[in-house]
Design a protein that fits this description.
This protein is an alpha/beta fold and about 270 residues long. The chain contains 10 helices and 14 strands. Strand 1 and strand 2 form a beta hairpin. Helix 1 runs parallel beside helix 2. The structure holds o-succinylbenzoyl-N-coenzyme A. O-succinylbenzoyl-N-coenzyme A binds next to helix 2, strand 10 and helix 4.
């Protein structure tokens, strides 16, 4: 897709996890089923996102699918059991919900690089990413009511906050497919480019954000989330404020005074208007 030389971070069975100059790329690598996910695929994605969170040399994360046919076609129907998708341990799970939350809470921008079909749970994954860049051949849609599933969580409510209530109901109730141009029109994607330019454009967007203040990007992401996420959004936002507070002399003085068994001296703390 481009001549960027991605270097493996860790090897997995169902995904590729690679790095290029501070940009991590997670590729669902099951093209034979249009990059549908199983509990194993999702567990691997979850670990990769956890690593992206922990490693300070990773600034931006890109999520994509292998090949030129699909980003992700949702849950793999071959693994659909009663109560969820069944992995090697025989336990039914809907563990993609955890990955949706990880993407939303990751204190770094996540770009969906949509290289083909983004259908069902795959469409939800693209929706929850911060930014979406699609190739001209990308197709978006939901199939839930047709195939016996649904995502009434972020897959519906967050979708509605992006495309509006009427459009979200149309997407879910009618199970139609939408072209990249239609997705751009409804605000579901940020940019549409020819397939051969997809990766280079995505990396260009990532590199631009890499140059900017990580804390500013982080606070903007969590501020935008907080409006929709209620107390959990507030928890995330407030947690970041605590992190920032711990970087001040004022917060350091409190802890230091306790350990030195003296009264804290906050007299030098600014009381700005
Ligand atoms: C993606 C589509 C439109 C592509 O069509 P195309 O290009 O004509 O290819 P096909 O010939 O249809 O497919 C090629 C091969 O790939 C297999 N395949 C495709 N998608 C899947 C899939 N999802 N599961 C298993 N196999 C798949 C085809 O069978 C074919 O194989 P061969 O060559 O052997 O015949 C088209 O393929 C399509 O419509 N796919 C199905 C899309 C779909 O309905 N996905 C499931 C939607 N549901 C979910 O994602 C579940 C979400 C969910 O359960 C959930 C809800 C709430 C909270 C959590 C969860 C959770 O998932 O955990």
């Amino acid at each position: 897709m481009s001549d960027i030389e991605w270097k493996p971070i860790k090897s997995y069975s169902d995904i590729r996890f690679e790095l290029y100059e501070g940009i991590a790329k997670i590729t669902i690598n099951r093209p034979q089923v249009r990059n549908a996910f199983t509990p194993v695929t999702v567990a691997e994605m979850s670990e990769a996102f956890r690593i992206c969170r922990e490693r300070s040399d990773i600034a931006v994360v890109v999520l994509t699918g292998e090949g030129d046919k699909a980003f992700c076609s949702g849950g793999d129907m071959h693994f659909k059991g009663r109560g969820g998708y069944v992995g090697p341990d025989g336990v039914p799970r809907l563990n993609v919900l955890d990955v949706q939350k990880q993407i939303r809470c990751l204190p770094k921008p996540v770009i969906a690089m949509v290289n083909g079909y983004a259908i069902g749970g795959g469409n939800v994954l693209a929706t929850v990413c911060d930014l979406t860049i699609a190739s001209e051949n990308a197709i978006f849609g939901q199939t839930g009511p047709k195939v016996g599933s649904f995502d009434a969580g972020l897959g519906a409510s967050y979708l509605a906050s992006i495309v509006g209530q009427k459009k979200a109901r149309e997407i879910w109730f009618l199970c139609r497919q939408y072209s990249a141009a239609e997705a751009l029109e409804m605000g579901l994607v940020n940019k549409v480019v020819p397939f051969k330019e997809l990766e280079a454009t995505t990396v260009e967007w990532a590199r631009r954000m890499q140059q900017y203040s990580p804390l500013a990007l982080r606070f903007l992401k969590f501020g935008l989330n907080a409006e929709l996420d209620g107390q959990l959004g507030l928890q995330q936002f407030a947690g970041d404020m605590t992190m920032l507070y711990y970087m001040t002399d004022e917060a350091q003085e409190g802890g230091k005074a306790f350990l030195e068994k003296r009264a804290p001296d906050f007299s030098k703390s600014p009381r700005l208007p």
